[in-house]
Specification:
By secondary structure, the protein is an all-alpha fold. It has one domain. It contains 4 helices and no strands. Helix 2 runs antiparallel to helix 4. The chain starts with a helix and ends with a helix.
Length: about 70
């Protein structure tokens, strides 16, 4: 399964996609951190929206793009 994912990433991902993947990985930490600092709490909804959009993009790249 992991080799399949790496092969799909190698074929379909650009440098931009790897950069977005880093952002995608950071957003859950920011969402969890939103329960503590007020500044992050104010942007929780935009973070959830960005997280959802990036999740859908990577699901498409990994599972649906040939």
């Amino acid at each position: 399964m992991i080799n399949y994912m790496f092969n799909k990433m190698e074929k379909n991902f650009t440098r931009w996609d790897y950069g977005f993947l880093k952002t995608y990985g950071a957003i859950p930490g920011l969402i969890l951190g939103a329960y503590f600092p007020q500044v992050i709490k104010n942007i929780l909804i935009p973070l959830i929206i960005v997280f959802s959009i990036l999740l859908l993009r990577y699901m498409y790249l990994l599972f649906f793009k040939k």
